[in-house]
Amino acid sequence: MVLGAYCALVTLLKPPPDEPGAGTLLTCSEAHVRTIGQHRDEIAALVAPVLSGRRRADPETRDIDDLATDAGAGRGHRLLARAVVAPVPLPPFDNSQMDGFAVRAADAGSALRVVEPIPAGVVPPALEVGTAAPIMTGARIPDGADAVFPVEATPPGSFPAALALSSVDVPADLTPGTFVRATGSDLAAGGALAPAGAPVTPALLGALAAAGVTSVDVVRRLRVLVVSTGSELRGAGAATVGDANGIALRAALAEVGVESRSIRVPDDVHAFTGALDDGVGDWADLVLTTGGISAGAYEVVRQALEPRGLVVAPVAMQPGGPQAFGTVTLAGRPVPVVSFPGNPVSALVSFEVFLRPLLAADAGVPDDRPVAVLPAAAADGSPAGKHQVRRGRVEAGAVHFVGGSSSHLLAHYAAATHLVHVPVGTADVEPGDPLTVWSIR
Residues 117-128: pLDDT tens digits? Predict the structure, then answer.
C-alpha cells in the first residue's frame, strides 16, 4: 500500500486520543495526494474565520411568527444572537391543571355549594367561603382558592353534566396546591428564557410566545455563492445540460441553515472573473464552485483563481478526487473559496464529507447523519489507493450498493439512503465485509 493511501485510511478513521493507536499517524509529506483528513482540516481552517465573524456581525431582528414559518418550511436552524429574558412569569398566573372544582383545601371532606363555572380566559371573582367553582383546564384560579379536585371525583364524572350539580363533596385528602400550576413555576419574571447562541427550537418559540415575546435577535445566516461552471450550462440545443450542481448544493446548504445564491458561468476566464466579482459583491461570506479544477484544457476555476491563491489539492477519495480551496480577493475583499469537482455525485459527496459537518455544527443543526457499521450484501470492487464513497441502501441489516461508482450517476444517488465507505487498501469487497455507512435520509 502506498504511503498516501495508508495516510488517507488512518486519518479518516484515526482513534480518539484516549484509545490505543492514537498519535501513531505517519507523516504524509511524501504522498502526491492529500488525505481526506488533511483536506477536511484545511477546509475547516479556511471557513472558521467567516463562521466566527458571522456571529459577531450585526444580528437580524425577526418576528417569532416568521421564525415559526421558516421552521415549518424547512428553513429553521437559527441561533439567538442575544439572550432573551422572560418579561412576565411563566405561567403568568395560578391556573388549573385539569377540569375540576376550585376550592379551599381547608374545606377538604366538606360538602360545598357549587357556584358559577370558570372558563379559560377570564378573571374570575373571588371564591366565596363554603363554595366550589367548576374550573376548566388552564383557567385562572380565583382568589381565595388554593386547590383543585378533578371532575372525575363527582358522580357525573365529567363536564358539562357536572355543571348541573348544586353541591359537591370535597375529597378528604385534598391539600393546598393540588392540581394548581403556580405563577412562575416554569420561569420567574426576568429569568433567562435562552442564552445567546441557543438554537431557536419549536419549544423555545412556544416559550417566547407564552411569555409575550414577539421578536428576537438571531445570528445572521451564512451566505454562500454557489458557482456552477461550464459553457454547456448556458448554451442552447443538444449540447446543453441542466445545472444539477447549483440546485442540489443550494438544497443541501438550506438543510444546514445557510442562505445561498447561484450563478452559472461559461468556460471563459474573463467572463468567469467578472461574474464572480458581481456575484460576491458585499453579500457573500463564502464561495462554493463546481467544476473547472481538473486537468482539462478549459479548467476555468483553476486558470482564473490558482494564480490568485487558490490551492488545487487532489484528495485520495472517489468520487471527489479533484479539490481546491483558498482565500481569493473578489469584489475588492478577501473571500474564502471552496472548489468541488463538476460531476454531480462528486460535488454532493464532497459537500457531505468536507463542508456539511462544519456548517451543520455552526448552525446548531442536530447530527442527522447517523453512522453504523454493517455487512456488505454482495461482492464489488474498489480502487485500493483511494477511499471510495459509494451510494447504497440498507435492507435486512445489510448494505446493498445502488448503482456503480461513476460520479455522473445522480439518479442512483437520489435512490440511495446511505453513503457507504470503502476504506483505502480495499480492492475487493466480499459479502459480509463490514462497511461504515452514513444515513443521508
Answer: 999 999 999 999
Letter for the amino acid at 391?
R
User: Tell me: the pLDDT tens digits for 178-212?
Assistant: 999 999 999 999 999 999 999 999 999 999 999 99
State the amino acid at position 162 in one-letter form.
Answer: A
Please give, one letter per residue, the 3-state secondary structure of the chain. CCHHHHHHHHHHHCCCCCCCCCCCCCCCCCCCCECHHHHHHHHHHHHHHHHHHHHHCCCEEEEHHHHHHHHHCCCCCCEECCCEECCCCECCCCEECCCEEEECHHHCCCEEEECCCECCCCCCCCCCCCEEEEECCCCECCCCCCEEEEHHHCCCCCCCHHHHCCEEECCCCCCCCCCEECCCCCECCCCEEECCCCECCHHHHHHHHHCCCCEEEECCCCEEEEEEECHHHCCCCCCCCCCHHHHHHHHHHHHCCCEEEEEEECCCHHHHHHHHHHHHCCCCCEEEEECCCCCCCCCHHHHHHHHHCCEECCECEECCCCCEEEEEEECCEEEEEEEECCCHHHHHHHHHHHHHHHHHHHHCCCCCCCEEEEEECCCEECCCCCEEEEEEEEECCEEEECCCCCCCCHHHHHHCCEEEEECCCCCEECCCCEEEEEECC
Q: Which CATH architecture has domain 371-439?
A: Beta Barrel (2.40)
Q: According to the model, what pLDDT value does residue 295 have? A: 84
Cell numbers 363527582 label which residue?
Answer: 154
Of the listed ranges 145-159, 329-343, 403-417, the one predicted with least confidence: 403-417
Span 33-57+221-363: which CATH code? 3.40.980.10
Class (C level, CATH) for 95-181: mainly beta
Q: Tell me the CATH architecture of domain 60-84+191-218.
A: Alpha-Beta Complex (3.90)
Q: Domain ranges for the chain, please list them.
A: 1-30, 33-57+221-363, 60-84+191-218, 95-181, 371-439
The pLDDT of residue 239: 57
